[in-house]
């Protein structure tokens, strides 16, 4: 009975209705809904979703949505996934002042001008216009200066298209990216790596050395971490031994019994 109900809920729906929202969340009052996942339902019309005034997380990926007007009233929304739809106009999102994480990869956003409406969203720190994992993109991403322009437009963002642009890890990522681009630019000639006698190390010899802190708290935490890691390795060895014994015992039981005549 439950599987039948799930199949009915997963069937394509053209318009979001109060009945649909209540049935999928179990909430009687639309204003009580905080999280909503409506992925891959074939939705064309967002209907009454704007009545979910306290909605914080919304996943509408994999639908046929093109008009975002009903989302303009969702002032508390901070995570929004609109990937794989038919969206070209992001203007209604201008009112979603709490928005922090936005995914619009796999739509039909055609130009940089379509992104200006998002500049007023001061809390926005994670934007995705393309997703290489699922081969999602937007026409705007074909612009050769797309990345630089977007970073200038949104100086406060921390992650663009799944790549960290500021904070921990960003420097290493940029370094690896620069290396790849340099290699592609022509360090190889006739399939062979060209040697340069004047090459110098990019960092000092001691750059990769682990620097221990003088902070007693950090040192103690480091020590405890190593002890926990050691215990995990011991447990892993014991588990491996028990599993091998069990497998050996089961294999013996499966062997046919032999009787002497």
TrEMBL record:
InterPro entries: Leu-rich_rpt, LRR_dom_sf, SDS22/Internalin_LRR. Keywords: Leucine-rich repeat, Repeat. Gene3D superfamilies: Ribonuclease Inhibitor. This is Leucine rich repeat containing 61. It holds the Pfam family LRR_9. It comes from the Eukaryota.
